[in-house]
Amino acid sequence: MPDSYEELFLKKIEDKSILVGVVGLGYVGLPLILSFAEAGFRVLGLDVDEEKIRRLNEGRGYIAHIKDERIKKVTDSGLMAVTTDFSRASEADALIICVPTPLSCYREPDLSFVTGTMNSLAPHLRPGQLLSLESTTYPGTTDEVLRPVIEGRGLAIGQDFFLVYSPEREDPANPSFETKSIPKVLGGATEACAKVGLALYGQVVNRMVPVSSTQAAELTKLLENIYRAVNIGLVNELKTVADSMGLDIFEVIHAAATKPFGFTPFYPGPGIGGHCIPIDPFYLTWKARAYGLHTRFIELAGEINQSMPRWVVDKLIQALNERGQAVKGAKILILGIAYKKNVDDMRESPSVEVMELLEDMGAVLSYNDPHVPVFPRMRRFYFDLHSVELTEETLGAADAVVMLTNHAAFDIPFIARHARLIIDTRGAFPAAGNVIKA
To answer: Would you please indicate which residues are annotated as catalytic (active-site) residues?
Structure first.
């Protein structure tokens, strides 16, 4: 009796003859494809960005925390091929989709990258393949959006084709965790789908966490990020309360964090950024409306977090007013424009919203970010600026220095000595006469 597609797939994993395809070579897809190649598997990378493909073929990267040495080692091994030619998807035994899932201008799910990818892959799907979606999305996406495309090709899910959802859990620039050490959740469209999916990912991840369905896996990812969004919203609101009382919220959080149980510290800032926290909660609120539900708690946290850039600007305006200066014409030096410390990722960065508000008020802007030497072109924002050097002269010339992203490279004592006024949104500076907590 011939082997089933399930048995053939598992054999290919065992003898490492399987070819793993990754679609979308960004902050999620690139470390994933490198991990499979480093584990000895042949890999195929697919991306529409010709510049990314060119750099990878030269053994060079484009994400700050993924070093060129790692990419070159994989490139030189001969295990990795990367291309913009999606017709080569038929060569892959596994196809893992790692494309963005942003919000529309109406703050509703924008699945255009997912649907566009599926349309590109559809003609090249064949029996015996596994398709995995890693992009964060609402419960039901894998079953409602991906499954019909596959079945439209005459393929039977769980028999001659396998479909799973396994959400990404990357934390760029976190030295404590990498792809291999972060437990990975996976839900299959059928038991057979889950079995082959767990076997595949288990080659590069130490611990797999199976759940009962693709929908359960999709909701798991949303819960993780909603948990963070809500708690960040809580401390951002408490920050405004503490400020009104003349208290330092960072001192209070550090003290509360000494409790060895029942408390997890979250820290306030100028807003929330990255591709997950500002976006993912709204995927669930949108889906919940289909069930006649209103996710008030989640939406309130979103409103609080979205109000933080304005609150920071108001603190700056107040501080300048107390010094007899208007924000119009004021020289404002921004420290950190990436969305989090020690990365070059600008997605949904609250720093950019602060900059837009200040520019609209007539401020003269400059910035320093050791990870973003030139301001990139973004979908919503653009400033014709480059990172200025932090010197006594540049700091002293600024009417205010606004700390928005606390990169480790910043010399805090040096900045504190030479800046006339510091608006600190990250609790990075000790209390001083020229420091305003925001």
So the answer is: 276
